[in-house]
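pinned: reference chain
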Amino acid sequence: MIEVKHLYKSFDDKEVLKDISTTFQDGITNLIIGQSGSGKTVLVKNLVGLLEPTSGQVLYDGRDFVRMSKQEKVMMRREMGMIFQSAALFDSLTVLENVMFPLDMFSTMTLRERQRRAKDCLARVNLVDADAKYPGEISGGMQKRVAIARAIALNPKYLFCDEPNSGLDPKTSLVIDELLHSITHEYQMTTIINTHDMNSVMGIGENILFICEGRKEWQGVSADIMGSDNKRLTDFIFASDLLKEMRQALRVRS
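pinned: its structure tokens
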């Protein structure tokens, strides 16, 4: 479990995060949503140590990440998996070598053990025949699945995903969502997904944090989001014509 307590982040005189307190739970998909510029990406960067909070706490199972020493943070990051918006695969490495990369860097496994682990992770994301291919030879959806396989290679306790469906068609996005959701439950990870995709919110949003202008505006589950009376949330959620129609239909039924 990750707990955030009274987190502030400023850049010079601009306050971006303002007293955010929240909890991201184990074994479920935790989603962070909000408009561009709302502070959600800055929040995730503070969670993983890419940025230092101005004040506040980030607790990993009770351990304060902000106040850890440099070496302690290095050890802590070994418990984290990251999936970047662009997949961020190494073009010069094969699919298998990409998944092996964190194992080569941080594990004490033999070469054969690392290869076996990487192949097991690729099999878990339904990529059993792509070992020898290079990223440029596979589709965008397959690249995202390779990124997921790489992220879980070290069996992390915490998984962070930055816009994992960016650039994907709706059908492939659903595949990625279901894969992240099932892996989260299977490995009992604390998964945090930063997303704009409302299909993801409604499909796999088990714990949803809505940030507006740097503040925690709303938190709940997807079952409650459609009926929320929080105006800023509803303005964000029902920005598209389709969702406006869905909202109107719900009102008519009630």
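why pinned: The chain has a mean pLDDT of 89. The first strand starts at residue 2 and ends at 11.
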